[in-house]
Design goal:
By secondary structure, the protein is mainly β. The chain has one helix at residues 8-26, and strands at 32-33, 38-40, 45-48, 52-54, 59-61, 68-72, 81-84, 89-90, 95-98, 101-104, 109-110, 115-117, 137-139, 144-145, 150-151, 156-157, 162-163, 168-169, 177-180, 185-189.
Length: 196
């Protein structure tokens, strides 16, 4: 990684501007954004729709070619929600799309390109109208979602579990395991006694 050679006063001004931008443009798009956030390049974060809550100490990293997108498109006005806990890490390219409900616990790490959705958005045969079936997604505390992994509707992921890179999760994942593949399957049991 290239060393930051900016003078301290330049870096301080940049961080102040970044915080100002987040508080004036990102925070109003949320129903709640907790304190002590670090939103890097917040001008590449798009938040749309109602009922979006992000806890304290969130770290969000966005890039010009990898926007972070969090959206709620409920089946009725004001319906649908995304709730994200405290101390989360959201990497570039993460996309969270809710029709009903997506709940993400504390200390969850989302690597580059993660996609989480609670709906198919349209049917197999009727590809014009909205799919009537939405099923909530629940991601437990301390889960790590690997690069370009996908979490589909109706999935609950237990705490401390890891979803491997490019895995597609279409059914529930127990706590303290590693899942990989398409569809994702348990490939390893984690030892909770070792700590996380």
């Amino acid at each position: 990684m290239r060393q930051d050679r900016r003078p301290y006063w330049v870096k301080k001004i940049y961080i102040s501007f970044r915080t100002w931008y987040t508080n004036h443009f990102v925070r109003p798009a949320c129903d709640f954004l907790g304190d002590y956030h670090a939103v890097m390049k917040p001008w590449y974060v798009h938040i749309g729709g109602p009922n979006i809550r992000i806890g304290k100490c969130a770290t969000v990293v966005a890039e010009p070619d990898d926007w972070v997108r969090i959206g709620v498109w409920g089946t009725e006005p004001g319906r649908g929600s995304v709730t994200i806990g405290d101390y989360v890490m959201i990497s570039p390219g993460v996309r969270i799309s809710a029709a009903e409900s997506i709940t993400i616990g504390d200390s969850v790490m989302m690597a580059n390109g993660v996609y989480i959705t609670d709906s198919d958005w349209h049917g197999i045969y009727d590809r014009v109208n909205r799919d009537e079936k939405q099923t909530p997604v629940v991601i437990g505390d301390n889960v790590w979602l690997g690069d370009n992994s996908t979490v589909l509707k109706g999935v609950t992921i237990g705490e401390n579990s890891i979803v491997a890179a490019r895995a597609v999760v279409n059914r529930d994942v127990p706590a303290d395991v590693v899942v990989a593949g398409n569809p994702a399957r348990v490939v390893r049991q984690l030892d909770r006694q070792r700590g996380f």
